[in-house]
Fold each of these.
Amino acid sequence: MIYLKKVFILLFLILFPFSVNALENINLNSTNYVVYDKTDSKIILEKSKEEIKSIASLTKIMSVIVAIENIDNYNEKVTITQEMLDTVPYNAYKVGLNVNDSVTIKDLLYATLLESGADSVNSLAVHTSGSISNFVLMMNNKAKELELYNTSFENPIGMDDENNYSSAEDLLKLLNYSLNNDLFREIFESNTYKLSNDIEVVDTVVTMGNKLGVSTKRIIGNKTGFTGDAGLTIAFNFISHNHEYYAVVLNCPIEELKDFKHVRDALTIIDYVDNNYKYKRIVEKNSIYKSINVINSIFKKYDVINNNEVIKLVPIDYDDNYKIVDTLPTSISNKLKKGDLLGKISYYYKDDLIYEESIFLEINSNSIIRTFINQHLIFIILEVILIGYIIYILRLIFSK
C-alpha cells in the first residue's frame, strides 16, 4: 500500500508539476564582475566588485574620454610622427599607423576604442597633452574627479604595471560617466570605421564572435582587453526587457585565448537578465490599500486609495521576497485638511526599494461624513423610507 502511495505521488508530480519561481545561479569565468541596470539606477549582480585588479585595455576608456573632453575639433588633422610611435611597446597591439600618416582626432578615437590600437591611443595622448606622462597625469586627475578611489593609471594603453589598476566598481562608474558623452557613446557602440588613411578598424567583439561562431548582436557597445596579469576583460552595454544595462567583467582566464571567455561571460550575463526578470504590476490603480480610523466622526473609516498603476521590472522570485512598509497612522483626526500628508507606502524586494508613494488626504476629514452622505444619499433615503414603513406596520399591528 505504501509503495502504491509513493507511485501515485510521483505520477501526480510528473503530470501536474508545481511552478516554482527561483532565480538561477549565474556561473561566469570571471572572478570580478558587476552588472548595473541603468534604467532603474541599481546594481543587480556583482562579485568582488571593489577588488583591485589589473584591467588591460579597459584603461583606454579613460584615455578616450579624457581626450574627448580636452579637444575642441575632432576633425583636426594629426600627422603621425616617429616620436608618437616610439612610445608604443613592441608587444602592444597596433592598428598599423605609419610615420607621416595624416588622420583625424576622430580616427584615433575610433581606432582606440574599436580595435584597441596602442599606436592610435599613444598618438592621441601625445597630440592632446604633449607627452605620455602629461596625459597620464590628466587621466589620474580625472579618476580623482570621478572619485575612483581604487583606480590608478601609469600608461594610456593598459600595459601591465603595478600602478595601472582599477576595480569592476570603479570601471562601472567610469563607463556610466563616459556613456553620457554623445561622441563616446557613438564610437563605443560602432562596429566598423574607416580611417582617413583607409585603414578599416573593426570592433573586437564582432571579430571574436565570428571566430567563436556565435552572435554578439545583443552586445551593443564594448571595450575588451587582455594581458598576462589582467586576463581577459570586457566592459559593455546591452538592452533587456527595454532596460539598458552596463556590465564590467574582469580577470577571465586565458587558458585558451581563442575561447574568448570574456565574450562568453558577456553573453551569459545577457541570457541571465533575459530569463530572470519579468514585468509585474506592483500597484493596481484605484485599489484600496488600507482603511484608517477617523476619530470623532460618524463615518468611522477613511480608505487610502492607490492612485497610480505601477508596473516594474523585478526578479522572477519577487513574490517570495517582497514586503510593504508604510508610515500611515492607525487613525486620523477630524481636523485634518485636504492635502495634508498622511505618510508613505514603500514596496521592497528584499531590502531594495522598488516603489514609494506619498499619501495625502484627498478630502477634509471634517467633511467625510458629508461626503459619505452625498455618495450614499439614495441608500440613506431608501433606508429611512424602509424604517418608516416598518414603524407604520408595527403601529397598525399593535393598535388592534
Amino acid sequence: MFGELPPREPPPAGLQLGFVTRAERAEVEALERLPIDSLWVGGHVASPNPTPETMVGLARLSSASERVRIGSSILLLPLFPPAIVAKQVADLDRATGGRVTLGVGIGGEYPQEFRACQVPVSERGRRTDEAIPLLRRLWTGEEVTHDGRYYAMEQVRIHPAPVQPGGPPVVVAGRQEPAMRRAARLGDGWMPYLYSPRRYAASVATIRAAADELGRELTSFEWFAFVFVNVKAEAAAARADAARSIGGLYSQDFSELVKTVVAAGTVDEVATRLQAYVDAGARHLILAPATEDDRDRIVRRVVEEVMPRLTVPD
C-alpha cells in the first residue's frame, strides 16, 4: 500500500529547532552560526500582501545556506505542475547535498491565486493527493508513465535524481482533518500552523489513528509545529507586537487569538507555551518571529533563553 514512500531513517531523538527566514544572505549566515537545525521559507503567487514565491525563496535559501536543513513552509502544491516541482526540488537537493524538505499544503484562503494559475480551487485537495506520490516516482530518475486524472504523462524522465534516495521528505501542512489524513496516508511528516497545543495533540491522535487504519507504521514520520513567537520583558508588549504583525499578514484581528495559537510573552511564558507543544507531540519546532521590528533579538532570546528550558518527555 505504501510502496511509493521511500524508506527513511527515524528522525533524530530529542527536540529540533528551525526558523522561518526571509532568505537574505546576511540573515541566513547569522542564523547558521546559531545552534539550530533548519531554516524555512514560504510564499504565495498572488496573495493580498506582497510576498515572495516559495520556490524562488527556497532557491535563494539553498544558495545562502551551507549547513542546516532547508524547507518550504509551505508550497501550495496544487498550483504547480508536478514535473516542474520535481525538477526544481531535485536540482536544489543536489545543489545542497541533500538538505531539502518539501512542505506542501493546498491553500484556498486566497482564491485569486487559483484563478491566476488557472486551477479550480475545488480541485486543490484531489490534485495534491495525486501529485505527492507522482513526485516520488519522478524523483527516482527513471522514466514515468502516469495515467492520472490531472497529471497524465507518458515516458517522462526527470534526471538527475535528488541526492536523497527516493527524493526529499514531503511534509504535509494544514489545519483540518483531510490534511491530517493526507499526512497519515502520503506524508513523511505533519506541519500544522495557528494551532493551540491542545489542538496539536488532537491532530497527532487523529494521524496515528488514521495510520493504524491504513496499516502504516510511523517510525520515520516527523512531527513539526509551525509556531509564531515573540519574546519581550513585558508580556503585554510581546502579545501586542505579535498581534499587529500576524494581523497584518492575515488581515484580521489577532488580539485574542494570540493568546492561544502564538507563543508570545516573557521568556517563562514562551517556554511554557512551547513546552506544551512538545508535550503534545511536536519534535521539530519551526518558529516564525511575529514582530514589526525586533526579529533578530527575538531569535537570539529564543535560542539562548527559551530552548534550554525545554525537555522532551520520556
Amino acid sequence: MNTIGDQQLVRRLNRSVLLRLLRARPGLSRAGLASASGLTKSTVSLLVRELLEDGWLAEAGAQAASGPGRPSTPLQISVRARALIGVDIAVECVRVVCVSLLGEVLHTAEKALRSPQPQQVCTQTARLVAQASAVIAARGLQLAGVGVGLPGAFDDATGMVRFAPNLGWRNLDVLPMMQRALAAAGVRRVALYMQNDADVAALGEYEFGGGEGEGPLIFVSCDVGVGAGIVLNDRLFIGSQGLAGEIGHTIMQVDGPPCSCGRRGCAEAFVGSRAVAGRAGLQRGGRMLGVLLQNLWTVFNPRTIVVGGKSCVGTPRLLQIALETLDGYAQLAGMPAPSVRPARHGLLATAVGAAALVLHQDLRPMQRRAVAAHTHAERMPR
C-alpha cells in the first residue's frame, strides 16, 4: 500500500474542495469552510494556511464574532499572487492572454500566424508566451501554468494532434515541440497543458463564467474551422481519441460544397468564417448553424449553449438567424429551447479557456488529465 501517495492525494482533494467552495462562496471563514466541506476544523486550518502560503488564497478584513471567541476572517481566492497564461493557436493567428485565478484578463496579445509549419508555430507562440510571462513577472505575480488551445482533434491519452485539416496537421506530437520552444524562448519551467480549442473555450465559460450552475454546457466555435466543446458532469467529454465535438465535419448536405478535410457537405463548408461571406452565404450559414444547434440540443440536452468564433463575433446576424431557426424547431416540438448566448470574451474565448484548462486540472485532481509536461513543482499540490 502506498500510504504516502494516498495521503498526498487526500490532501490534494481536500485542498481542491476548499478552493471550489471559495470560488462559489467567497468570504467563507475557516469555520464556514469546515461546516460546508465536512472536514474537521483542524484540517481546514492546516490546509488554509498552506493555501495562503502558496498564494491561492487571501484574507479579507476580520468580521466581528457573533458570539464568544475570536472574530472570523473571510477568505477569498487571491488575485495578487498567481496568474495563468492561455494560448489560442488559431488557423490565421495566435492569441495569448494572462488571466487571474478568477478569470480577470490582465494582458492580451495577438499576431498573425506566419506559417502553419508546426515548428514555426511553436516558435512564434513561445515568443508571445515569453512576453506575457514578463508582464506577469513585472506585476509581481507567479506563473501557475500555461494552457494551449489547438484547432483540431487532440488525443488526450497520447498528446497527439490527430486531425487539424486547416493547418495540415495529422498525427503530430506537438507537446514536446512546444515544450522545447518555450525553453528556447526563456520561459521558466511550468506545467504545460494542451487541448482542443472548442474544448478549452467550453472550460473557460464553465470555470470563469459561473458555468458550474449552467451544466451541461456546450461551446460551439465557428471560426475557419467549426467545433464544439462539451462539459458533462463537471468534466470535458472528449471521446476515446479526442474526436468528440468535431461537429465541423458532420455532413450537413450529401455531395455539398467541398470541405478542408477532403469530404463534401460538412458543416464547416456552410458555417465556417470563409463560407459566410455575402448575403447568400450568411443566410445559408445561419440556417445551417441553427440545425447544428438543434442537433446538439437533441443529442446532449444541454442547459446552456455558448456560441463564439470569428463567424459569430464578426457577423452577429449569423447567430440571430441560427436562433430563429432553432426556435422554429422548438415550437414544432412543443419544447423550450436551451439557453443560447454569445461567448463572454468574444474572440478571446479560446485563449481565456486555455488558461482555465490549467485551473481546471488543479481543481479536479481525480479526473483524467489533459496531457501535460510537468517540469517544476509549482502546481497546487506541494
Amino acid sequence: MPETKDPGTNQIHLSIVVPVYNEEDNVRLLYQRIHDACEPLGQRYEVVFADDGSRDRTFEVLTGIHEQDPRVKVVRFRKNYGQTAAMAAGFEYAKGAIIISMDGDLQNDPSDIPLLLAKLDEGYDVVCGWRKNRQDKLISRRFPSVIANWIIGRVTGVRIHDNGCSLKAYRGYVIKNVDLYGETHRFIPAMSTLTGARIAEIVVNHHARRFGKSKYGIGRVWRVMLDIITVKMLAGFAARPAVWFGILSLPFIFGGLFALSWASLQFLGIRSDKWITTSTTAFLFLFLGGHLLSLAIIGELFLKTGDYSPKGMLNPTIKEL
C-alpha cells in the first residue's frame, strides 16, 4: 500500500471498516456509495478496507481508489484468514471516535449510515443493523440464520434479531476493547456486554448480491455452534472460572457417587460379579470431576494473582473520546 499523508489524524470522527475478499467488481461502487453517504454529514471520515488475501484484482482496484482519495486506507493480508481477522485488523487501524463496519459485497447499504449515527447519538454504544427484509437464499442463509440468532440470544442473553449483519456502529473505545478471533465477529454485541456497552438495533436495507458469489454457506453452522460455547464462557464466566468449571464438574461428581454407591451394593451381594466394572466407572467419573475442580482452583488463583484484566475495565468512566 502506498504511503499516505494524513495530517490531523486525531480529528477523524468517523471510520468505515470494510473487510473484503475477492470483491473486485464491488469495491469501487461501494466506495462511491460510502462517499455519497458520508459527505453530507460534514464530519471528517476515513474508509478502511481490509483485504483478506484476495486472489483477484481487489487490492489493485483499492490501491487505485486510495491514490485518488487518501481518506481510503487499505490493510492487506498475505493470505485469507477469515472475516473476523480482517474486521479486527480494520478496527485496529481505524482512527475514528465512531466506527462503522459493513460488508464489501454491496448487500449492506451505506445510505443507512446516518440512521446508525442518529441512534448512537441517543446514548448507545453499539447499534446493530437488522436485515428485516433479507435478500438471501432461504434454505442456505436465512433459515440457519434465524435458528442461530435464536440460540445466540438464549445462550448469551443479548437478544437481537440479526447478529450476522455486519452493518453496525460502535463507539471506538468500545470496539477496540473487544477481542475478536475465530469467527466471533457475529458475536460482537454479546462480547461488548463485557465492557458494559449499551446496545440498540435498527432496521436497515439489504440488497441482493449483484457481483461475485457468497463466501458463506450452511457448512459454517458447526463453527458457529462452537463459537457460541466460547462466547458464553467469556461473557458469563470470564471473571468467575470456578463457577464455570464447577458447573461442568457436577454431572461427573454426581455420576461418580451414584456409580460408587451402586458398586458398593453389587459388592455386598446384589450383583457381585459386576462391582469391579461399576467401581472403575465410578472412579473415572470422580477423577474427571476432581480434575475440573482443580482447573477451577487454578483459574481462580490465576485471576487473583495474575495480570488478567478484562479490557472493558481499563477505562470504565470514559464516555466519549
